[in-house]
């Protein structure tokens, strides 16, 4: 009986210790949610500065945009840079072999903080992807050479072994769920030829939105 009691007590102590260690080491989670405007296939193509086919080369360490809130009025978001080696440039102009894609999610190893945003996809090293990318024009823009996903998770597609691309998110059912990459290349060419002034229209729309925001929220 003594052996059974001692064994039970040891098991209880181990269980309590394990729970305390788990709670202490479990990362703090910051979850960001919100609605995302649906982009048509035309918008996805024409709103992208470049469209690339490539493989994920590196996932860099996540960094906060305003650590310690030292800069007044600037949001503090945990961002991660994804380095993708370009196999083929399907649209736009870009001379580097690697392109950096910045997403607003990540993990702070030192502080054990996980920043989760459902609006951004996950990446894995070695993953074959097709990306619709835009230059950052948001409030956290820097002068670094990087891009953001057009339409957030709508801008990341996986390339399968047979050359077909697919976006697995339920939210993008309004877009073609699967298509051959060669068909996409033809569609890109057609959209650009049929909309030669799209870039100017897009910039004009951005300016209208900027002025409206100033009217509503101030500078």
Q: Care to describe what's here?
A:
The chain is α+β, with helices and mostly antiparallel strands and 219 residues long. Helices cover 29% and strands 29% of the residues. It contains four helices and twelve strands, in the order H-E-H-E-E-E-E-E-E-E-E-E-E-E-H-H. The strands form two sheets. Strands 2, 3, 4, 5, 8, 9, 10, 11 and 12 form a nine-stranded antiparallel sheet that branches. Strands 1-7-6 form a three-stranded mixed sheet, with no helix packed on it. The relative contact order is 0.16.
How would you briefly describe this protein structure?
The protein is of the alpha+beta class and 219 residues long.
Tally the helices: what do you get? 4
Helix content: 25-40%
The outline comes out as globular
**Proportion of residues in extended strands:** 25-35%
- Point out poorly predicted stretches: 1-8, 13-23
How far the N terminus sits from the C terminus, by CA atoms, comes to 76 Å
State the secondary-structure class.
Answer: alpha+beta
Give the helix/strand layout.
Layout: H1 2-25, E1 28-32, H2 41-46, E2 50-59, E3 63-64, E4 78-91, E5 98-103, E6 106-108, E7 113-117, E8 128-134, E9 148-149, E10 156-159, E11 164-166, E12 178-180, H3 181-194, H4 198-217
Parallel strand pairs: 1-7
Antiparallel strand pairs: 2-4, 2-8, 3-4, 4-5, 6-7, 8-9, 8-10, 10-11, 11-12
């Amino acid at each position: 009986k003594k052996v059974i009691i001692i064994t039970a007590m040891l098991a209880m102590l181990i269980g309590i210790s394990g729970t305390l260690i788990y709670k202490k080491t479990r990362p703090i989670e910051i979850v960001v949610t919100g609605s995302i405007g649906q982009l048509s296939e035309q918008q996805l193509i024409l709103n992208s500065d470049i469209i690339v086919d490539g493989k994920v080369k590196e996932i860099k360490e996540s960094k906060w945009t305003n650590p310690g809130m030292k800069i007044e009025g600037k949001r503090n978001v945990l961002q991660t840079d994804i380095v993708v080696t370009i196999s083929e440039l399907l649209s736009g102009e870009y001379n580097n072999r690697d392109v950096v894609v910045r997403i607003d999610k990540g993990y702070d190893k030192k502080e054990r903080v996980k920043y989760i945003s459902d609006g951004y996809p996950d990446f894995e090293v070695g993953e074959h992807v097709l990306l619709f990318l835009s230059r950052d024009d948001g409030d956290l823009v820097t002068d670094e050479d990087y891009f953001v996903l057009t339409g957030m998770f709508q801008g990341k597609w996986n390339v399968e072994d047979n050359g077909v691309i697919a976006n697995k998110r339920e939210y993008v059912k309004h877009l073609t769920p699967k298509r051959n990459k060669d068909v996409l290349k033809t569609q890109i060419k057609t959209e650009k030829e049929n909309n030669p002034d799209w870039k100017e229209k897009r910039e004009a729309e951005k300016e209208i939105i900027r002025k409206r925001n100033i009217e509503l929220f101030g500078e």
